[in-house]
Amino acid sequence: MKIAMIGAGYVGLVSGACFADFGHTVCCVDTDPAKIAALEDGRIPIFEPGLDTLVADNVRHSRLTFSTEVSGAVAQADVVFIAVGTPSRRGDGFADLSYVYAAARDIAASLDGYTVVVTKSTVPVGTGDEVERIIREARPDAAFAVVSNPEFLREGAAISDFKRPDRIVIGAEDDRAASVMREVYQPLYLNQAPILVTGRRTAELTKYAANAFLATKITFINEIADLCEQVGANVQEVARGIGLDNRIGAKFLHAGPGYGGSCFPKDTLALVKTAQDSGTPLRLVEAVVAVNDQRKRAMARKVTAACGGSVRGKTIAILGLTFKPNTDDMRDAPSLAIVAGLQDGGARIRAYDPEGMAGARALMPDITYTDDPYECATGADALVIVTEWNAFRALDWTELAARMPGRTVVDLRNVYRPDDIARHGFRYVGVGVPNA
Ligand code: UDX
Questions:
Q1: Domains in the chain, ordered, with CATH?
Q2: Which of this chain's residues are annotated to bind substrate (predicted)?
Q3: What is the pLDDT of residues 31-73, one digit of tens each?
Q4: How far does the centroid of ligand 1 lie from the alpha carbon of residue 379, in Å?
Q5: What is the number of the ligand 1 atom nearest to the C-alpha of 261?
Q6: Is 263 one of the annotated active-site residues of the chain?
Q7: Measured in angstroms, how far is the CA atom of residue 358 from the centroid of ligand 1?
Q8: Whole-model pTM?
């Protein structure tokens, strides 16, 4: 199959490279000439484990090419994916669909022969209808179908999520389009991934419902963690106790500083807005959004409390800035609210992150960035683990103790067992677990 991928951002690049790896011929198009030049030069603009070799392999076999021109790629394609950004619109939180609609107009101008146009970007219910209307208006005679095929990729695990998905959701309004999409995903039959063919609006909503449910699960366990702290229970054991129930499932029950990233915050907010607009407010999801927002700032208060009630004049070492490990993504990272809260309280911040420092520097210019965890901890009154990078899972606590005048560790990801840290003379504060 010939595939055009409009948008060579995170989703477009990962999906394009994986489709090429399935044996399809893929052209990734992006309006940013610098990005395309970099890709043609073998440089990957994002950090995603395994993506560089996957791109290089498929470029070498001529299955993957890059272009700034929509027209050529679309004219040749059997399937055109729209994988452009849908950020939260400033002011009202609705998804900003201007890039999606601009892509639809560009695609319309170049369609040649029966083409399936697929929205891969996360888009509110009804966007597929609008994409169809835009193309139909521009090209009344064109042979095309508009399909929704949401992605469920996790940053840091995107390639394996793409190649070994739990399911593939295809929202199509006619059989021909659905069978083209089955062919696109044919190589995954080997993995026996279930392909769910639904109506287009159902597929669009399924994506939002999945992310809202996962965000709810995280927020639920975070609130239970707070309760555990008050009543002397252990959230990790509660999570295991409930997670072993198959109806609940063990995943996404890690208590922490609140969810961040490019999807959950934006998608939960967009779903809330869509629901309110439809006169069917999702009160549970509204609560999840509010609780999670408050939680990030609350983590600064937790650190302050661990430091004896004030951080004024104190030096706090922050390990981990990205919203989760194995990414350089700083979007809606809890670290942003935590650092701001601590700075407002008068703290000096030192920080280290294995991949996120370039992004963090742009957002938080007024903190001291360091080259490794030990340099970060030097001179610190307290050490705070904000992101659970593997590099922080086996720290040398003797070395840290020698470098830190203070003896407080706040582990916002429950990476360590409290007693293991206490042994080295530190006071340990985790999330929803007894302090040590
Ligand atoms: C998510 C979805 O998992 C993916 O299917 C969707 O397409 C895009 O959004 P991603 O944002 O990359 O992927 O990361 P994910 O691993 O889901 O984590 C999201 C956030 O939740 C992170 O901030 C993470 O730290 C937090 N989280 C996750 C928890 O706090 N506890 C958990 O148990 C799981």
A1: 2-198 (3.40.50.720), 199-436 (3.40.50.720)
A2: 152-155, 207, 252-256, 260, 324
A3: 999 999 999 999 999 989 999 999 999 999 999 999 999 999 9
A4: 33
A5: 11
A6: yes
A7: 22
A8: 0.94
